């Protein structure tokens, strides 16, 4: 396990690597030249230029930003982060924030990465506390525990088996029969067939607060010339070295950003199409089958209409059943809606979650929001007395495109044939959970450190020349 000190920013580390960047460079991050963007965030205003960093990260979602953070806090390398927009504009901004193991399966391909990441989040929380800060304020952190809810005999059996497996894997897990469950969640509809798997150590973060915290950590390295952000600046192409064929720079719409050691592409659901675009000019084709899987998250602000003590997920979530038959117009054939509910650190009710394949479309679909509300009402009958239309003043909907991989595993590792380019994408509905483990894995690969988690299942496959 990484020691606490390796996870904290070391203000004494000064880059020996970033020779061309100085704090007076027009693109160096500085609080003086920050300008509000249309989304109310701050970005660095850059004139067209070129400069060099050890590591260039493409994508400022939770995966790209945590990778940048891990390089900054555990090495003396300099890092640039590039995004076509701003952090939280991708899937990250719609994330419900659950760092849950209750829906993960011991022995599956992603289990070790998920558990390592879960552990790293807890270590980060501990380090925040040791600095005298409150992780609830910094990350929106809550350890409220998770309940996976079953409503039939068959689901109860599945939950019993899951609890056994989770306990054998070393987690604290309990099987709750209906009488235990109603004590934990008095407002939940519970009958004799109801049951749950309960993981008291499962926790949640707020994606926005967490991203802001990670950005704050990363920016603490800017004054040393080790960190720069290039936001609202899409990557257009890679520039390859004539001598060894490696990628030596990332060309954005405004800048040429040279990389001395590695380029990490963490562009979420855009990773596949981006890599194809970047490779086309070289007669190469890298097929990364990551697809956008749209999700709506309904947020009801300052919610106190019912009691919800833990985070809840229906057992059927594990199957993502599609809405079919008379309920579903043709265009929603792919839609699945499962009940996932929690209260965040600010007291907002978060209700998910929907899944559908509709390309890169991120338009609000009110019918999906209604499905979510209806589904949650089947578990919390009190909500049925509250029409969705009454909540128009207090509700928001967040929409994001999960980076879906058909084999259910993210892709993390070097691109065959281009040893200094790495991919880190395809975490679908678990990118917040798996971010810290992914970041550690990428840093270990780039720096040649021994791996804490076997990365073989996540290797980038198939380069066609
Ligand atoms: C409704 C919903 C609920 C979810 N709930 C949870 C949860 O409870 N727990 C959990 O662990 N996960 C959850 N997830 C999943 C999680 O949000 C994602 O897995 C995660 O955010 C993916 O992060 P990312 O950094 O890979 O992608 P993104 O956040 O999408 O970031 C990719 C970035 O790449 C940038 N980019 C794209 N193309 C370019 C380019 N050409 N040049 C430069 N930049 C580019 C984009 O602008 C974007 O900022 C949820 C997702 C949704 C939609």
From TrEMBL:
Keywords: Oxidoreductase
All residue ranges annotated as the FAD dependent oxidoreductase domain in the record: 54-445
GO cellular component terms, A-Z: cytoplasm
Signal sequence, start to end: none
Keyword Oxidoreductase: yes
Described purpose of this protein according to its UniProt entry: Required for the assembly of the mitochondrial membrane respiratory chain NADH dehydrogenase (Complex I). Involved in mid-late stages of complex I assembly.
Protein name per UniProt: FAD-dependent oxidoreductase domain-containing protein 1
Originating organism: Glycine soja
Classification lineage: Eukaryota, Viridiplantae, Streptophyta, Embryophyta, Tracheophyta
């Amino acid at each position: 396990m990484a020691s606490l000190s390796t996870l904290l920013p070391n203000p004494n580390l000064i880059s020996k690597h970033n020779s061309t960047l100085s704090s007076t460079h027009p693109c160096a991050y500085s609080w003086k030249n920050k300008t509000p963007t249309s989304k109310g965030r701050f970005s660095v205003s850059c004139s067209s230029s070129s400069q060099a960093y050890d590591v260039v990260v493409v994508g400022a979602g939770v995966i790209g930003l945590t990778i940048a953070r891990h390089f900054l806090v555990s090495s003396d390398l300099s890092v640039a982060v590039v995004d076509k927009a701003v952090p939280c504009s991708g899937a990250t901004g719609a994330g419900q924030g659950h760092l849950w193991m209750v829906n993960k399966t011991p022995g599956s391909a992603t289990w070790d990465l998920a558990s390592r990441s879960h552990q790293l989040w807890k270590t980060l929380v501990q380090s925040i506390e040791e600095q005298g800060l409150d992780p609830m304020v910094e990350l929106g952190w809550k350890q409220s525990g998770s309940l996976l809810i079953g409503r039939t005999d068959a689901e109860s059996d599945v939950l019993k088996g899951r609890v056994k497996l989770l306990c054998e894997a070393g987690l604290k897990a309990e099987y709750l029969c209906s009488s235990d469950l109603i004590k934990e969640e008095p407002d939940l509809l519970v009958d004799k067939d109801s049951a749950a798997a309960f993981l008291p150590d499962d926790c949640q973060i707020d994606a926005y607060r967490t991203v802001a915290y990670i950005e704050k950590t990363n920016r603490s390295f800017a004054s040393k010339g080790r960190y720069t952000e290039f936001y609202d600046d899409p990557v257009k192409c890679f520039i390859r070295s004539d001598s060894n064929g490696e990628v030596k720079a990332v060309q954005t719409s405004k800048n040429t950003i040279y990389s001395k050691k590695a380029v990490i592409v963490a562009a979420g659901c855009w990773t596949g199409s981006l890599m194809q675009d970047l490779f086309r000019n070289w007669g190469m084709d890298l097929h990364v089958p990551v697809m956008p899987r749209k999700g709506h998250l309904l947020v009801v602000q300052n919610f106190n209409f019912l009691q919800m003590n833990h985070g809840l997920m229906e057992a059927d979530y594990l199957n993502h059943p599609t809405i079919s038959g008379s309920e579903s117009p043709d265009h929603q054939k792919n839609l699945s809606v499962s009940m996932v509910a929690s209260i965040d650190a600010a007291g907002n009710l978060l209700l998910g979650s929907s899944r559908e394949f509709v390309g890169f479309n991120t338009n609000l679909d009110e019918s999906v929001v209604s499905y979510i509300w209806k589904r949650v009402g089947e578990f919390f009958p009190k909500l049925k007395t509250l029409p969705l239309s009454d909540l128009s003043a207090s509700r928001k909907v967040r929409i994001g495109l999960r980076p879906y991989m058909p084999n259910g595993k993210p892709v993390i590792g070097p691109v065959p044939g281009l040893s200094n380019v790495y991919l880190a994408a395809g975490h679908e509905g678990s990118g917040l959970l798996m971010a810290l483990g992914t970041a550690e894995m990428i840093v270990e690969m780039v720096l040649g450190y021994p791996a804490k988690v076997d990365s073989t299942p996540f290797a980038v496959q198939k380069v066609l020349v």
